[in-house]
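On clarity, I found the account of how folds are encoded harder to follow than it need be. For illustration, here is how one protein appears when written out as sequence plus C-alpha cells.
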Amino acid sequence: MNDENLIPTTKRSKNEARELGRKGGKRSGEVRKAKADLRKMAQQVLDGIYEDKNGNKVTGTEILIRGLVANMADPKGKNWGKAMDLLITLTSAARSEEQKKREQIENELLKAKIKMLEGGDDVALTKLDAILGNLERTALDGEHTETKSETE
C-alpha cells in the first residue's frame, strides 16, 4: 500500500469529508444488505426439500450434515481439515473466545498428529499424544469447573 496517497480527513474540506463519509455509509449499507441476502439464500437452501439419488426426500440441512460426516470419516482425505474447521465454526458459535481458541489449538494439534502418523515419526507422535492428553484433561477440568459454578 502507498501511504503517500492517503489524505487524513483533517486535511480535507468539510464538504469533501462529508461526501466521502456519505459514500462510505452507502457502501456499508450495500455490503450489509448483500450479506443479509446471502444468509437468507443459504437458509432457504438449508430449509429446502430435495430428492437424493435413491428418491428419498431430504432437507438441505441433512445434505450438509451427510457431506460433513462423509468428509470427517476419512482423516486422510483432502477435505477433512475443511470439514473439521466448518464443524468447529458451526458448533462454537455460542462459545466463549477462550473455548474457541482451545478448540482451534486442538484442531491444529490433531492435524499435526495425522501428518506424523502419515510420516511414521513415533517419537514426535508420543510427545504429541502427551500434549493432547494434557490438553484434554485441562479442558475437562475447565468443563467441571464451569458446571460447578453454573449449579451454585
Remarks:
- Residues 97-151 form one domain.
